[in-house]
Amino acid sequence: MNKKIWKEIKKAKNILLTLHPNPDGDSIGSSLALYHALTQIGKKVTLISGDSQIAGNFFSLPGVKEITNKNFFDLDLSNFDLFIINDIAAPNQISKIKDIIFPLDIKTIIIDHHVSNIGFADVNLIDGSSPSTCQLIFNLFQSNRIKITPNIAACLFVGMYTDTGGFKYLGTTTKTFEIAAKLTKIYPDFTQLIFDIENNDHPDRLKFLSLILSSVETYFSDSMAIATLSHQAIKDNNLNPSAVSSSDIANILKSITGWQIGVAIIEYQSNNIKASFRTRDASKFDLSLIASALGGGGHKAAAGLVLKDTSIDEAKKLIIKTIKKIYPNIDKI
Fold it and tell me: Which of 35, 55, 109, 164 lies 20 to 30 angstroms, CA to CA, from 209?
């Protein structure tokens, strides 16, 4: 598959890349790594930010200023002959603005590690066993003898570091550490990258944490914890959108002994919900099943979804009902 992907890349002249909504380190790192690699072999590459702004803790990544502040629907696809869809599990993760119908009028390639990805592009490289898309892209570069420059190494390392939770999450292997060692040898200032990622919070972040953590409720004999934040609370407290992250909260919740599943539900717009799921034990609870049942996706240990025209109370009831249906004995595990 690696060779087939590179064959399509070689044929293309104008290549489009995009970040997914609310881009994380793997989305940004993998896309920037591809941007650097493709431009160094003479391709014209456009990398767009997509629906969302880039969080400040990624501003130090090499090439971040080359990201064009546009979403998918701002573009004329006739200007491109290849669209590489990176770290994106479904068409609705390209943009939330409106539906994108496949196949498109241009060649499409998927490079992704989400197990929920059904392979909606013309060429699909999907490996759910990989802990990050950046690790897949490293292997793609190695297979096709692409020189990994310091800029590429920095971007790949950040994606691998963030999507493995600092090399702690399920799926991290000795191979992951071997790749990270090679990347840090090429980019020795990797500790500064980690510092920038982990030490770039705004005072709004503390306000957000205090608000959402004060809402925590437990269910199923304290096996699951749910935290919520309404759009009205976000407005009333004038919170910067970059300070609001459901995935971080779900991680905090699942860190508590006994809370097997942590769920964060945020009403990012009126009656529009983003929910994130994390679990302490992916061998017992496959979160991708829960998220997929509600139109989302992700991995066994980490998943998420977006619900439109849904209130927080409705979302909470729907999530609880779905979890109970999939895991009827959750309160006895």
Answer: 164
